[in-house]
Amino acid sequence: MHRRNWFEQALFSAMTAGFTLNEMAQPKLIAQDARNSSLDSGKLRITNIKTVLTQPSSSRLIVVKVETNEPELYGLGCATFTQRARTVETAVNEYLKPFLIGKDPTRIEDTWQSSFVSSYWRNGPVLNNALSGVDMALWDILGKRAGLPLYELLGGKCRDAVDTYRHASGSSFAEVTESVNKFMSEGYRHVRVQAAVPGLVTYGARASGDVRSDLPENNRPDIWEPRPYVQMIPQLFEHLRQELGDQVELLHDVHERIPPILAMQLVKDLEPFHPFFVEDPFSPEDVGYFRHLRAQTTTPIAMGELFNNPNEFIDLIKDRLIDFIRVHLSQIGGLTPASKLASFCEYFAVRTAWHGPGDVSPVGHAANIHLDITTPNFGIQEAREFSTAEQDVFPGCPELKNGYYWLSDRPGLGIELDEQLAKRFPITDEPPFSLQWGNLRRADGSSTKP
Ligand code: MG
Description:
- It is a single chain.
- The protein is globular, with a radius of gyration of 25 Å.
- The chain contains 16 helices and 17 strands.
- The chain is 39% helix and 15% strand.
- Strands 4, 5, 9, 10, 11, 12, 13, 14, 15 and 16 form a ten-stranded mixed sheet that branches. Strands 1-2-3 form a three-stranded antiparallel sheet.
- The longest helix is centred in the N-terminal third of the chain and has 22 residues, at 125-146.
- The protein folds into two domains: 46-149, Enolase-like, N-terminal domain (Enolase-like, domain 1); 152-412 and 434-441, TIM Barrel, CATH 3.20.20.
- Helix 8 (173-185) crosses helix 9 (226-244).
- By secondary structure, it is α/β, with parallel strands linked by helices.
- The protein starts with a helix and ends in a 9-residue tail after the last strand.
- Bound molecules: magnesium ion.
- Magnesium ion binds at residues 253, 255, 279-280, 305.
């Protein structure tokens, strides 16, 4: 029967039976009420969401706490966008919280999907970090409720511990060598190496006397020139291979701050020294160069700490143009999208190397490690020591031993937050912190990518 004819016939039958159009809509309303009343029948609910901003070490950390109507049952998630902490705080408190209060915290996927589109405009670092804070907290709640560590809910361990790398930086080749030797003596097998370029500020290592003293203190640009850097880094690798041999795995982060053609030359020049990977050779705006780079060198490539949107990495993965995905879990929206990304990478032999520097909270590191330990195509995890203050504020920080991260069997993420102690480490809001990235300049005074 034609659809309209069917409707007209039903309408005619109803009206001749004495129903009004308004009454015909009632069954739908009743179904809606039934759904609402089942939601209000004493099941688990989100009762409060709050942000905790704290700075027990150098980075401003943002942690989201999701509370439920079950006594003592709550979750923690990392929402750390350290450069714009107050905007994430607002996104959680003013927008996500009223949207999610009263909802079922066990509906993790549905919460992610509906929250993601709740602003209509989406995929940016502020909203993604806010969403990550909630998402990780819901996974934490699920684990605590089940009495199981999160890794069991993610499919169980693929390995006993998580292999890591640390950062060796120095103002000279000798300092870098000494730092690598120190990490190797502690059991590390992978070390990222960065060295200062004389007279310039360099990512990961700062040369002395590299700020312009003729400008006000809070407005001094750091001077950066790409050519001396791309000439020096192959010399650093040659030096390290001569001093350290071939056993230690060496990594390097270009930090996407040089023109693509120079990055291609640099990655080719490093090939004889067999880096474990070279990270972020291009900026996210220049991903079209990866196809050309792949044709030029077999040096393994890691990419992605600035990625926000799946469309930034899907083609790089499916076309096998990178070897490691480097995204920052909270930057793409938390554990839910990162777990899918890891599985997507598996089909293309791309390994994971989640971002794990100081501006990932201990809660975020715990999320990284739960995912690492359950991911068959895990590659390596960027690691850091947690300061004594961080360990006090976040009881249950992951442990580093012999170059591996180890997880406890505590339920959920296995990490706690001492909110009272966190208040003793308030975040710093004033410059120069917020000016750091935007003040990077070429020698002629022009702005350049950080
Ligand atoms: Mg990096």
